[in-house]
Write a structure and sequence with these properties.
With 169 residues, the protein is mostly beta strands. It is 5% helix and 33% strand. The longest helix is centred in the middle third of the chain and has 9 residues.
Length: 169
């Protein structure tokens, strides 16, 4: 969630945010406060909803504005991996291709990821990549993993849940 607060003054006002619980919100693993007045909540939970207060202050005084955040239930997970994708069409900008011709011939002989190496990008395209990792010993109680990624075009974080027995995304 991104909350925006714009303040204009001379000298330039400093913007701060206060949570519905009355705490000053700053940079943390869950939130980023930007100098332009934007507060970005990277992870929201239903209990995070309520009235956030924007406080803009400078030597001339202080002004406040309220912003209400409503957090609904999370959307169902959207799973994607190499087994659920349609084969690429020739000329498709999203078509995945091996990083090099040598990788292509090796891939034909061994379709799985190398077991002695860590996480690898085995194929890539203009807007997609195939990430693979070696089989790991099962960890009792772990049913899903979360993958986080973003696009350099907009820096919006995307989270995906994948089954623990998956070996590619």
């Amino acid at each position: 969630a991104a909350l925006r607060c714009r303040a204009v003054g001379d000298p330039e006002p400093r913007v701060r945010w206060v949570s519905p619980q009355g705490r000053l919100v700053g940079n943390s693993s869950r939130a980023r406060a930007f100098p332009n007045g934007t507060l970005e909540l990277l992870v929201t939970e239903p209990g995070d909803g309520g009235i956030f207060t924007c406080i803009a202050a400078n030597a001339a005084g202080e002004a406040t504005a309220a912003v209400e955040l409503t957090v609904g239930p999370p959307p169902p997970p959207q799973l994607a991996n190499s087994t659920s994708c349609d084969p690429p069409r020739d000329g498709d900008p999203d078509a995945l291709t091996p990083p090099s011709a040598a990788s292509a011939s090796a891939k034909a002989a061994d379709p799985g990821p190398p077991t002695d190496r860590g996480v690898q990008v085995t194929e890539h395209g203009a807007t997609a990549a195939l990430v693979q990792w070696p089989d790991q010993r099962p960890i009792p109680g772990i049913r899903m993993y979360q993958i986080q990624y973003n696009s350099s075009a907009d820096d919006i974080l995307v989270y995906r849940m994948i089954p623990a027995d998956s070996r590619s995304f």
